[in-house]
Each structure stands twice: as C-alpha cells, then as structure tokens.
Amino acid sequence: MKRFSFTAKSTLFLLLLSGQMMSAMALEHFITRDGHRLLDGQQEFRFAGIQAPELHRIEDDARGKCAADPRGWGQYFKWPTALEQENWIKALSYAGFKAMRTYVLSVEQEFDAACGRETHIQAPLTKDGLPRLNETAMVHYDRMIALADKYNLRLILPFIDHWEWWGGRKQLAAFYDENEQDFYDINSKTYAAYLSIIEQVINRKNTLTGRLYKDEKAIMSWETGNEIFETNKSFLNRTSAFIKQQDSNHLVMDGSYIELKEFALSDPNVDIISNHYYANVCTDCAARVLEDLTFINGRKAYFVGEFGLLPGKDIAAIMQSVVHSQYKGAKSVGGLLWGFRGHRQEGGFYWHQDYEYYSYHLPGFPEGEFNEEQYVIDAIRLGQAQMDGLKAAPPLPVPEPPLLLPINSKDWINWMGSPLGRFYRIERATSADGPWYIVGNQVSDGENGYDPKVKPLFSDKTGGKPRKSYFYRVIASNESGESAPSNVVQVIPVSD
Q: Of 97, 98, 184, 314, which shows the fewest CB atoms inside 10 Å?
C-alpha cells in the first residue's frame, strides 16, 4: 500500500481555484434588442462560440450506455462539480466567447431510477398536479448562472426538448397520460405543465446570488425549447406572451428550426429567430444564412443556434457567413458550433461523439487532429474576433495553474487541466521546496474517449529509489506562456 497527502499549500490552492477568494466581475446590462440588433448597453452585441450543452448536466459517455434503459441509447448522467463548472466557464470566457447556449432542462422518465439518473423536472405528486423542480439539480443551474455572471458570459436557456435524450415533451406528456403532440395544444394538461415549468424557473431565487432568475443579467434569452419544429401560431403566441408577463427583463427566442415561420416574425413578444444547420436543413449551409436573413428582412434578430457535424472547411465557411452575410444591413447576431465538452475533475476531458465527429476541447489538442479540432476552434475564434472589429483572434491568455490530484503511485498521476492549457510539464523533487526535476514534458490531457479510471494522464517511469518519498507539481503551457506551478502533492511509499 501507499498513501498520499495534500500539503497546506494544496488547501489554499483549492480555495483559489473554486473562486472563493476571487473578486466578482458582475455584468452591467441586460441584453436588449433594437430591431435586428442586440445591444449590451449602447454597444452592439454579436457573438460566436462553441455551444456548451452540459454546463448544468453531464452525459457521462465514459460509463457507456445503461443496460436498464431498453431504448438502447440511454446514457448515464451526473451533475458537474463546482470546480468543473468554473473551469468550463473560464475556458469559454478566456477564449474570447461572449455568449453560450446550454441544453434543456431534463425531464423525469420511467427508466431513470434503474439507471441512477436525476433530472431537473420531476413528476407531479398527484395525477393532475403540476411538475416540480428538483432542488438538487437546480442548485447546479444556480451556480452556472452565478459563474456566467462572474466571468462575463451570457446564457441562452431553452426550456423543453423536442427529443427524448434528456427527457422532453414526450416524457412531460406521460405525466398526464397524454402524447407528445399534446405539448403543442394550449388546452392540454401537458401545455399547462409546460407553462408551470416556465413560471417556476423564471421566478426561482438563485441560492448563490440571492436574485430571481428574471433579474439575472447573465441570462441573455429564454428559448421556448430545443428544436420544437412543430411549433404552431397559438402555441408560440401564448408561450411568448406568458414569458414576457413573467419576465420583462429578458429576450425571448423561438425554439423552432428547419423552416422559419412568418407567425414568429409577427409575434410582438418574440425577439430572436433561430435556426440549426445540419444535413436535414441545408446542403449549402453557408448560403442558407443569407436566405434566412432575407426571409426575416430585418424584422427580428437572427441567430444560428447550432451548426456543425461537418468537415472543418464547411464549418469555417458557415462561420464566415454568419459574420459577414447581410440583407439590407441586417446581419446575424451570432452563431454557435456544436459542441464543446470541458475538463473532468478527475483528469482529462469529458467527451461525446455524434456520428464520426467528437466534441471539441479548448484550446485544441494534437489528439483532435482527426477531428480537425485546432482548425475548427481557430475558425470560431476568428469569427468572434471579426465581429469585434479585429482582423485576427487575440492571443490566448497564459494558463492558470492546474490542480494536481492526490497521488497513490508515481505510475498514476492525474490533474485537472487548466482552462486553455495545451501542454503540461510534470516535475518531481525530494523536498516540497525543490529542487525540481522534469520527469514529463509536452504532455497533453486532450484525448477524446479518455477515461481516468482506465489509465492515467502520466506515469513517472524515470526511476527513483524504492520506498522514498517524492513530491510532484505540474505546470500548464500554451503559445502565450507558462502557468505558475500547481499545488504540490507528496507520495509516500509505506510497507504493506
């Protein structure tokens, strides 16, 4: 057996990483709309980025699929830790991104218990009752909003999904023995439950900031749902009016896609029209931007809510079209590539695969070459820079120190990566104060498909004396420089 120990410096380091000793940078304005433009105060607000669906709930792909879910694709889920959420939001903000869309609120369904899954929306306590928000889940949502405010990241928050991945309209309807089409019927029990969810969310008091959600400036817009393309006029009119009655501070986005709808453009309570660009929507998606802008004709703000699952050159072309296409002076307010996954606290990154494409990791890694990861990330960062009036993306900031995790054996060394750290240097010493010797250099933590339970990020094979105590630290780097050293962790061999 071997044992590990954290030094006193490690405890201080954890506090610094968690943000408990950092000053807040609260946002000043709500995002507003002026015709086809969005405004942050008096400044036009345009944004590009890589969509972050899991800021509040994680699909834990490393665990595989839940055999107890007979649908065959049922995932395992987990809640993000505070360190993970802060790490992800820092990475997005430090990369230069201004706004981010998350995925929906998850809805309870019949196989959740067998798969150990919790959801945001729970079944009513009585047959005809209203659904309930899961307090455990919503505290993570609270923290997402609080951190977004702290790091100047605006959030687009959709309510309910068309699809079943996290539980959606079908699961909501099942609470009332109705079917998924009843979701769009404004006289159904399912629709009444949907409005109740909206009301509960908008009027929720954030346990971390003390503010109601409707008073949180980090929220840019509410979205009626994710890809609810069967939206009809009465559904949208009633829903958008209800949201505005509950919340006069935030914008409302129509969550439909594929075909833009005239009734959405004439709805006085809808601020943003969105579309998602995949193979089922467009063959030349770069050209589709101008087609959609032409149809909208400056009457609303236009947002390319998702695009991707394409070769890098096509992604870059869409991004450039989002930046530059215009019709009678109206441009898209933004576009978000699908999709980003962040650091795992136990080491490495979370990951997800859609068809042959893996999720992207910031700031881009050699292991992602088959996915054209670096090229794609650079294309999106360039788009944001161009929206800001720059010719090139600014240099990345120097990384913060990574978090070195407890070490049981020098053959198994893991760390939580630094936001925007690209490579790591591992150093060893026989004293906590050094001198330090390099035992690993140019080590990456960006592997897609990585599982920290299966293999370590680094194994120290440089030798050393048996049963001798060693100290380790890790330093992150990118093209802008090196971080300060991580916390120091000691490994002490002991007799069995």
A: 314
